[in-house]
Design brief:
With about 280 residues, the chain is of the alpha+beta class. The chain folds into 3 domains: about 100 residues, no CATH class; about 60 residues, no CATH class; about 80 residues, no CATH class. Strands 1, 2, 3, 4, 5, 6, 7, 8, 9 and 10 form a 10-stranded mixed sheet that branches. A hairpin with a 2-residue loop joins strand 2 and strand 3.
Amino acid sequence: MPRLLPTKAKYSTVSFKKLKRPLKKILEKAPQLESSCNRPLQMDFNDQLNALIFFHLEEHTSGRHLIQNLKEDDFAREHIAPEKGTSKSSFFEAMNDRGLEQFLYVFNALQEQARTVLPQKFPELGQLVAIDGSLIDSVLSMTWADYRGGTKKTKTHIGFDINRGIPRKIFLTAGNDGERPFVSRILLPGETGILDRGYQQHKNFDLLQSEGKHFVCRIKANTTKLCLEKIPLLNDSIVFYDAKVLLGQQGISQTEKPLRLVGYEIDGIRYWVAKIVSI
């Protein structure tokens, strides 16, 4: 009588195969992972990717827990572990040198696949991309990720496709790198970036408009504004200000291209949002 796998293991096996299916053709064209020393790799990129997927599906608590499973679980030994097996030292050495270039390649290829099959939730609003940055703790050996003395952090700059509910683009930098320059790199012409106040920079507003890229950005309430044309307000609206303006101080930080500035109030709190005039 065949041995029955526990329910969780059955689920993980099916899920693993589903997750790997769209990766088959991608991995054939992925950049080759090269050893960072004279010794040959004990785990290639495909092995690392298999281990990472299985790690999350099985909800392992540590790398040691995963290694134990690679030795004791039939499915893990056959489909996850490297052909010649792996020792604890070779596994952690491989994880320490895992291929960032290869993982980014896989991410970009997967999101391109997803964009072609996922429906848009708000097609009438165009291509909406939420943009933000976030800090992630890093190990001290990651010298490039210097944040401040004795602290290492990387910063992720993410563009999230709101219509399809998936991340679109990811950039990784040192923790002390600025976020504003990545808006132009994330957005494509015709797309609309959704930005918080940290992205307010008037020369970038001009740059995005010249590139044919839209944005909706919350701005600081005390921002200097020169009203060029007032837009009539609706009765009983939460909107208390609507105008075509130039933002910033003249001769110092003022935008060259006009923007539409909208002020609205919710629960006694006033918000200011700038966007290009055409939307």
